């Protein structure tokens, strides 16, 4: 139940940015500090989520098969592989390493 | 056909390509502990890839107890859609219910296709076609992925935890062109990982967001030093 309420609340929260943007004047974009922080906020959150998902588990720092998997993902991103291919390859490498160890 | 209407083909192409990674979202949603329906509702109602991945990422780390942090993370990651909406508003000139629908479809892809067109009618058409194509494919593929993820069993044995990390890296990658963005990414990564053992799940990600406010507010690490 908590999760359902959370899902709806988060969806409304995400929608609020979108509808807010349709109601404020265009000049909001002219403020360089505001637009810079907004751009960097996306970068910071995605990078933090990458780090937490890659190097932590159960509230602790962990080093495991996810590290080589993400190294492979980075190489594939550099080679401009499609998103789904890159994600699948990372999963496959982690699964393979766990199967063999 | 593509000669007669390149915009239609382009919108469907973008919708298909985006929809494909809806499969990974669906699979990761159920791996994070959400039901198939909960995962699907995120794609229907939230409809913003970064925010959806953030929500399930925090739930995967902290369970239902971390739902507050999951809401805040998803909300903060949605901020760029607000900026897209500001840009789309004068182009679309939508009012009433149409405006409510336009807001829901205001995402990376619809804005990118629309603003790449030359004339106002083409810009409007590009927005609506791409937004609807992505919505349809993203939701269909989410359902497929969620059913698949449910059938797989232990997410770790299939490397789905690595897939979740790779998905975040893939969303981050195209945003790392400038030195300032790279510095923020590196600092945020370190702050989040190092603070994880000391804080409840989800909070490290929000704290890392403060890096962006500080670096952006003072314009640190920017390329040009001369005035």
Question: What's the short version?
Answer:
Chain A is mostly helical and 101 residues long.
| Number of domain modules of chain B | 2
Mean pLDDT of chain A: 93
> Helical percent range of chain A?
over 70%
Classify the oligomer.
heterodimer
In DSSP terms (H or I, runs of 4 or more residues), the helix count of chain A works out at 4
Number of domains of chain A: 1
Number of strands of chain A: 2
Structural class of chain B: mainly alpha
Backbone CA Rg of chain A: 19 Å
Number of helical elements of chain B: 11
Give the N-terminus to C-terminus distance of chain A in angstroms: 39 Å
Report strand % of chain A: under 5%
> What is the share of helical residues of chain B?
over 70%
Look at the structure and give the mean pLDDT of chain B. Answer: 92
Overview of the structural elements:
The complex is a heterodimer of chains A (101) and B (227). Chain A has helices at residues 2-21, 32-55, 66-78, 83-100; strands at 56-57, 60-61. Chain A has one domain (30-100). Chain A is built from 4 helices and 2 strands; from the N terminus they run ααββαα. With 101 residues, chain A is mainly alpha-helical. In chain A, β1 (56-57) and β2 form a beta hairpin. With 227 residues, chain B is mainly α. In chain B, α1 (6-31) packs across α9 (160-172), α3 (49-62) packs antiparallel against α9 and α10 (179-195) runs antiparallel to α11. The longest helix of chain B is centred in the middle third of the chain and has 33 residues, at 120-152. The mean pLDDT of chain B is 92. The chains are: A mainly alpha (101), B mainly alpha (227). At the A-B interface, α1, α2, β1, β2 and α3 of A face α1, α2, α3, α4 and α5 of B.
Labels describing this entry:
A: 101 residues; mainly alpha; two-stranded antiparallel sheet; B: 227 residues
Question: What topology emerges from the helices and strands here?
Answer:
The complex is a heterodimer of chains A (101) and B (227).
Chain A lengths: L1 H20 L10 H24 E2 L2 E2 L4 H13 L4 H18 L1
Helix pairs in contact in A: 3-4
Chain B lengths: L5 H26 L4 H11 L2 H14 L4 H11 L1 H14 L3 H9 L3 H8 L4 H33 L7 H13 L6 H17 L7 H16 L9
């Amino acid at each position: 139940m908590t999760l359902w309420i959370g899902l709806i609340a988060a969806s409304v929260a995400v929608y609020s940015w979108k509808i807010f943007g349709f109601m404020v004047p265009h000049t909001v974009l002219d403020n360089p500090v505001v637009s810079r922080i907004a751009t960097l906020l996306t970068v910071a959150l995605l990078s933090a989520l990458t780090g937490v998902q890659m190097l932590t588990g159960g509230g602790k720092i962990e080093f495991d098969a996810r590290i080589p998997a993400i190294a492979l993902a980075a190489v594939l991103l550099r080679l401009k592989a499609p998103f789904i291919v890159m994600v699948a390859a990372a999963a496959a490498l982690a699964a393979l390493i766990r199967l063999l160890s | 056909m593509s000669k007669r209407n390149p915009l239609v083909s382009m919108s469907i192409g973008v919708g298909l390509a985006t929809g494909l990674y809806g499969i990974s979202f669906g699979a990761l949603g159920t791996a994070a502990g959400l039901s198939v329906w909960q995962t699907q509702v995120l794609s229907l109602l939230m409809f913003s890839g970064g925010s959806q991945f953030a929500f399930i990422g925090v739930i995967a780390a902290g369970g239902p107890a971390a739902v507050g942090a999951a809401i805040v993370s998803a909300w903060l990651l949605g901020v760029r859609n607000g900026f897209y909406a500001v840009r789309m508003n004068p182009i679309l000139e939508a009012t009433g219910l149409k405006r409510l629908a336009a807001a829901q479809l205001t995402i990376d892809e619809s804005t990118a296709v629309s603003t790449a067109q030359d004339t106002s009618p083409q810009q409007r058409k590009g927005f609506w076609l791409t937004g609807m194509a992505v919505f349809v494919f993203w939701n269909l593929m989410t359902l497929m992925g969620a059913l698949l993820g449910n059938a797989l069993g232990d997410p770790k044995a299939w490397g789905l935890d690595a897939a979740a990390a790779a998905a975040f890296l893939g969303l981050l990658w195209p945003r790392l062109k400038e030195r300032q963005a790279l510095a923020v990414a590196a600092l945020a990564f370190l702050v989040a990982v190092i603070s994880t053992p000391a804080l409840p799940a989800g909070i490290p990600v929000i704290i890392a967001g403060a890096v962006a406010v500080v670096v952006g507010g003072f314009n640190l690490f920017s390329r040009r030093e001369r005035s």
